[in-house]
Amino acid sequence: MIGPVNATGNHFHTYYSDQAAWNGEEEVADLDLDDTDYEGPETTTIYKEYPGVYSFYVHDYTNCDSNDSSQLAASNVKVEVYSGSFKMATYYMPNKEGTLWHVCDYDSRTKALTNVNEVTYHTEPSNVGLSDEEVKVLEIKENIRERLFNIENIANGMANGADEVDAKVTAWRQQVDSYDIEVLNEIQDAVEEYYQQINKMFLYDVSYTVDDNEKNVYENTSSRIYINKLDSSVLSDIKITLSDSDSDTVVTEVTPDEGYDKAYKLTASNGFEKVIRVKIKNLTQDDWNASIDDED
To answer: DSSP class of residue 24?
Structure first.
């Protein structure tokens, strides 16, 4: 079900992946269950009406990638609409090919229930009923959230600068609730620029030698590195280098914390710092074989 635009500028949307719709801290609608055994029923309930149009759909998720499926048409599915205990209407799936059935619309302002009965093909359940611009807004928001997650991962283990990064990420997370596509594009550009800056500062490669065999791990952002080796093997030449050769970050070996064998401090020109801790695990042959099995 797609509902009117809420206080944050987004449509209420209940479906299998997000079964409750909220306006702030108030639950305004929900889908009681995601029925996957085809027995039903599934019930969508509106707890509080907001002015506007509510649109109800049935989506054939199983065949959502198909452009010629007729399984929804053959399903004999029906939709019953109630106001309290009063049955307002019953709709039966028409004999039309498609994966998305737009059943009806309900206008909470006029209390009118309108039969739509349109069947089309539709792939993505998260953007059912949305306009092209609204779909684009969702894509931008998802891109922003992914980049903020990337920034947080890179910032993990930072000493100097962590508070500044956290403050920026928190502010952007609050702004991403906007529904203005121009505002979101500006946020996306700013987040991407900041991500590239942080990435250049702290994206690093690891190299080391085990029994004269050089090993490499490229483009790492973790604040901890674990190196497994046989206890009979010789480990040497552990090096941390910046992945971006143009980065002005300085790598310095420092005294490791208790429980770690090596530590390296990355210091950027703006004063931001991140410590990379290295733990070396000396394994018996049996432990080594077990670790290989775990990786498989």
So the answer is: T
Give whole-number Cα distances, 259 to 154, 235, 263, in Å: 22, 18, 11
Considering only the C-alpha atoms of the chain, give the largest distance between any 2 of them, rounded to a whole number of Å: 80
Give the Cα separation of 217 and 220 in Å (integer). 7
> What are the pLDDT digits (tens) for 27-66?
889 998 777 776 778 999 999 998 999 999 999 999 999 9
Phi, psi at 279, each rounded to 5°: -115, 125
The model's confidence at residue 13, banded by pLDDT at 50, 70 and 90, is confident
3-state secondary structure of 46: strand
Q: Are strands 273-283 and 224-230 parallel, antiparallel or unpaired?
A: parallel
Please list, residue by residue across 143-182, b when 16 or more beta carbons sit within 10 angstroms of its beta carbon and e when fewer do.
ebeebbeebeebbebbeebeeebeebbeebeeebebbeee
